[in-house]
Amino acid sequence: MFARYAARGLKAGVVAGAAFGLFVAFVGDPLVRLSEAVVAGHEHAGEAGGAVLASATSVAAGGLWGLLAGLCFGVAYYVAEPALPGGADARSYLLAAAGFVTVAGAPWLVLPPQPAGVEPALGTEVRLFWYATMMVAGALVCGLSLAAYSRLQYQGRTAGLGAAVVPFVLPLGLAAVAPAAATAPDPTLAAAYRGVVASGQVLLWGTLAAAHSWLARRSSVATRETLDAPASAD
Questions:
Q1: Stated pTM of the model
Q2: What are phi and psi of 185, to 5 degrees?
Q3: pLDDT tens-place string over residues 80-96
Q4: What sign for the dihedral angle of Cα 183, 185, 187, 192?
Q5: Structural domain range at position 41
Q6: What torsion do the CA atoms of 115, 120, 126, 132 make, to the nearest 10 degrees?
């Protein structure tokens, strides 16, 4: 059964990786090149070949990230499925939301995406420490949120949802005491860049959830048909 769940996650990851790779190719990389030009104060000439190579590398990396996210998603779904509320669709999207919070949402509270060319204000070790810390905090609050909702949902939907929101104070508190990240010289460009990066991650996790949900429904239908076949034959 574990192998089936992992394979389903990988299949969903292929779809999500393809969608994310296309997003990187047509939206992400052009914005990176624009931000480099704005920060440097001039257009880079004669670098068409390098830009194509960089785009191809970024697309490949996006596809691999989708595969890795899909594999982790399948394994996490196998472990967490009994505890996740709702039907198959809701469980897939809830787990995708938890993945987004863990690898992007929580870490970005301390280390928001920066346009290319912006010098980091923190050293590499400090950035890695805070990124790992916020990832752990993101995963922890998602687990605590699920546990709180499961415990209080029987007292009413409002009580369950209210309890599920409380744990998210933890990453906000950590972000409040974390060192300040670098400030981009162009706030408008920084805001646009962060919006595009966030959109890409939402696309990745949303596509992963949608593909996984469809595959789960398809597997469920196939299983029912297999179980019904002997009865039909009799």
A1: 0.84
A2: -65, -25
A3: 988 888 888 899 999 99
A4: negative
A5: 2-233
A6: 0
What HEC string does the chain produce? CHHHHHHHHHHHHHHHHHHHHHHHHHHHHHHHHHHHHHHHCCCCCCCHHHHHHHHHHHHHHHHHHHHHHHHHHHHHHHHHHHHCCCCHHHHHHHHHHHHHHHHHHHHHCCCCCCCCCCCCCCCHHHHHHHHHHHHHHHHHHHHHHHHHHHHHHHHCHHHHHHHHHHHHHHHHHHHHHCCCCCCCCCHHHHHHHHHHHHHHHHHHHHHHHHHHHHHHHHHHHHHHHHHHHHHHHC
- Which residues in the chain show pLDDT less than 50? 42-46, 48, 233-234
CB 114 within 8 A of CB 129: no
Residue whose pair of structure tokens reads 């920066």 in the numeric block:
114
Count of structural domains within the chain = 1
pLDDT at 52: 64
Work out the angle between the directed axes of helices 88-100 and 187-233 (0-180°, nearest 10).
150
Place of tokens 């949120």: 145
